[in-house]
Prior knowledge:
Helix content: 25-40%
Largest sheet: 8 strands, parallel, barrel
Distance between the termini: 44 Å
Number of helices: 13
Shape: globular
Bound molecules: flavin mononucleotide
Amino acid sequence: MSYRAVRRVMFLVPAEQIHMWVFAALRLLTKVAPLRAAMHRRLAPHDPVLASTVFGVRFPGPLGLAAGFDKDGTGLHVWDALGFGYMEVGTVTAHPQSGNPVPRLFRLPADRALLNRMGFNNRGAGELATRLTRHVYDVPIGVNIGKSRFVEIEAAADDYRASARVVGPLADFLVVNVSSPNTPGLRDLHAAEALRPVLTAVQSVTSTPLLVKIAPDLSDAEIDEIADLAVELGLAGIVATNTTVSREGLETPGADMLGEGGVSGPPLAERSLDVLRRLYARVGDKLVLISVGGIETTDDAWQRITAGASLLQGYTGFIYGGGLWAKRIQDGIANRLHDGGFRSLAEAVGSAARR
Ligand SMILES: Cc1cc2nc3c(=O)[nH]c(=O)nc-3n(C[C@H](O)[C@H](O)[C@H](O)COP(=O)(O)O)c2cc1C
């Protein structure tokens, strides 16, 4: 049976419900060691041309699982078996919280997109830390941290610091998320005067490479300001972008009636690429840029790499693309590298932007 047929059946079940079932099934399957090993052999990136070392961490392949799918790190053994080159778990917050009322995740099938207002449902940074301590892993793990909902924006720095203190030393990289549209006031932390204390608070408790994840709905001036701040503070990089609050161009009937939330997938792609280009023009090789938002095909992935992204991530493309999606994209990237005469992924990063 094709994934398209499987997807048609899965899409009959409410989105969050099927997410939980499929995730549980994946965890179960990959607990069987020989099966996990077989999946890894078949799906993981093995071509050395795909490997790279950025901010001191070696990535076997450039495509990672984006934050939000495995918020609590309950599937740490799943993602490399499915061929991802790394994973970003979280968002976790210092305090466990249940998130927004259900329903809070919707499919926009005509757009191959999703709309979510999950609101950082998670079991807290402490529980993730316990899980990371026990896990022996093959691919890099980034941890994405956010602000606990009940904490006032003025006290955000302390809240981020509390999470960073427990998960920072256990992660290969840490991402400060100020860009979810589903925690009231969170996006106000993009302003440099608000972001600076948050980032320095995190830096004061961990030396793990630090990145900031930004929204696609920023002005050019705001993007430049964050890029400059990231360079000034010696951050490792920027993750661009989170979901968009824009509803422009959506084709799914009734999309306007679903209420608040962030849209992911192809409707976000153009804006996410624009933000990447702006960042690369501003900071060049001074920061590592991780591009996420609407990556669905090898063409999308290659465009992001040559526009300046050292690493990529996807969430919605995986939902619509299925279990072979990560392999398909990374095989495609390897072919482009060989065809273009590039000796390594790093050589291709930003090559279109520099022309
Ligand atoms: C259901 C859902 C939950 C998400 N949760 C988080 C989250 O907790 N933290 C975060 O930084 N991004 C979160 N994201 C955003 C993704 O990490 C990613 O930035 C966004 O979906 C764009 O990528 P995509 O088009 O490949 O999905 C979430 C996305 C979705 C669809």
